[in-house]
Backbone:
């Protein structure tokens, strides 16, 4: 079984090749002549400045990044913030319906929240975290490139999502909105809080909202951490999906077409989930990766994300366990209906199994019993844990190689990586695996650390709006 798992184990030679290919993809995404054909798009976010600690006030934030949609009310005062929020479900029929249905749902949730919080009379700015690949045309305009995370709403790809939100609000008749900025999710992680905007008005009858920014959760993660740590230059999401953003010199971002506000920098949303869509990662993809890809709503797309993110990691482990069971290497060749059911082995199982202390298998046995495998032996538990370790270690090492590439590209002496996402938060060894592997690839003389973000997709949206307000 260990011999058959070798294809899931990546040595440094394979990871070095990954780094070289990833850097080439980044440079292609940044270049004006090569951007259109680039797989890793490196979208300009139009965020030029990080928080400086002077941002204060009360603001709204919207966060759409998966099956749940959040509306938040955040108050920021120097180094302190208070937050109230409400989660609204995004039903399956809305995720797969029309764009009009989706944005009508968002507008409805926003209106309900504002009424419940009794903030109809206040003047508030708003940041919008939209955690899908966006081609930004400015801080308040973002064109959807493609859907990910199981969404497939019609009539949205190729259109400005801020305009679609404005149209939905106009259809209600009780909300009026003026968009100031739109950002991607990684930018939100970076920014984290917003400034009170004197141009933003919410009336007694008509709700008038000044949207300061649209962003994705990686940008929010970066901003959220940069609010506390001035060395934070990279935002990473490693949860249901995966993406990264980083601070780039404006001179290298050839598609950036706005005046320099003084920093000389601009945040770049890499959209690295698509890395490998051109076939450059075939040398490390396995039969499990190909099987997963065939059964997604977007086959052939987001291949990098499908190797590393929480949405797929449990299924990679299940496919390996299923294969080895049918080959007689596990459970005496006797499986179960649950084990052979697609997506039934959850990613949280991987984390729970690896949380067992060495030599004990309490969580593993409970999970196997839940899957109808009460006949599992101790050796089966050892083997299942090893499979999970191979899958999660591969994910951590790929993420680490990508982050090391960005750290080396920035080239500063000290760099903090702001990180958010359920996989990083809850897997017992992901942080340590990343620290160890990044250390092997960063250039000599560079000191780095990893910082857990505090609600980048929520507070980060506010911070982007805050900085935008401060600049204006």
Residues:
């Amino acid at each position: 079984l260990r011999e058959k798992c070798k294809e899931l184990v990546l040595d440094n030679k394979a990871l070095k090749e990954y780094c070289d290919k990833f850097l080439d993809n980044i440079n292609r995404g940044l270049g004006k002549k090569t951007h259109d054909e680039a797989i890793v798009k490196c979208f300009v976010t139009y965020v030029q400045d990080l928080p400086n600690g002077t941002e204060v006030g009360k603001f709204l934030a919207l966060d759409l990044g998966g099956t749940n949609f959040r509306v938040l009310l955040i108050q920021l005062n120097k180094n302190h913030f208070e937050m109230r929020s409400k989660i609204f479900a995004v039903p399956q029929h809305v995720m797969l319906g029309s764009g009009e249905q989706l944005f009508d749902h968002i507008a409805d949730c926003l209106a309900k929240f504002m009424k419940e919080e009794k903030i109809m009379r206040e003047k508030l700015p708003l940041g919008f975290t939209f955690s899908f690949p966006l081609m930004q045309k400015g801080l308040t305009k973002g064109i959807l490139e493609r859907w990910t995370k199981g969404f497939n709403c019609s009539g949205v790809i190729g259109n400005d999502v801020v305009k679609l939100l404005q149209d939905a609000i106009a259809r209600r008749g009780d909300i009026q909105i003026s968009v100031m900025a739109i950002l991607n999710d990684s930018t939100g992680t970076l920014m984290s809080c917003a400034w009170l905007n004197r141009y933003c008005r919410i009336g007694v009858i008509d709700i008038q909202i000044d949207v300061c920014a649209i962003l994705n959760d990686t940008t929010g993660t970066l901003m959220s951490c940069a609010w506390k740590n001035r060395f934070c230059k990279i935002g990473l999401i490693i949860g249901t999906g995966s993406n990264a953003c980083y601070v780039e010199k404006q001179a290298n971002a050839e598609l950036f077409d706005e005046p320099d506000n003084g920093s000389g920098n601009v945040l770049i949303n890499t959209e690295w989930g698509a890395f490998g869509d051109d076939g450059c990662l075939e040398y490390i993809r396995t039969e499990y990766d190909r099987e997963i890809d065939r059964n997604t709503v977007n086959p052939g797309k987001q291949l990098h994300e499908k190797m590393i993110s929480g949405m797929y990691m449990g299924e990679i482990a299940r496919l390996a366990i299923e294969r080895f069971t049918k080959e007689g290497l596990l459970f005496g060749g006797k499986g179960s209906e649950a084990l052979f059911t697609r997506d039934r082995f959850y990613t949280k199982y991987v984390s729970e199994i690896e949380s067992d202390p060495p030599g004990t298998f309490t969580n593993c046995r409970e999970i196997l019993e839940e899957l109808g495998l009460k006949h599992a032996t101790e050796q089966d538990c050892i083997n299942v844990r090893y499979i999970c370790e191979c899958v999660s270690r591969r994910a951590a090492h790929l993420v680490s190689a990508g982050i090391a590439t960005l750290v080396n590209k920035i080239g500063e002496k000290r760099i903090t990586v702001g990180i958010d996402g359920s996989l990083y938060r809850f897997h017992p060894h992901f942080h340590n695996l990343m620290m160890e592997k990044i250390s092997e690839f960063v250039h000599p003389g560079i000191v780095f650390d990893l910082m857990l973000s505090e609600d980048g997709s929520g507070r980060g949206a506010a911070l982007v709006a805050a900085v935008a307000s401060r600049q204006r």
Summary: The chain has a mean pLDDT of 88. DSSP finds 15 helices and 14 strands in the chain.
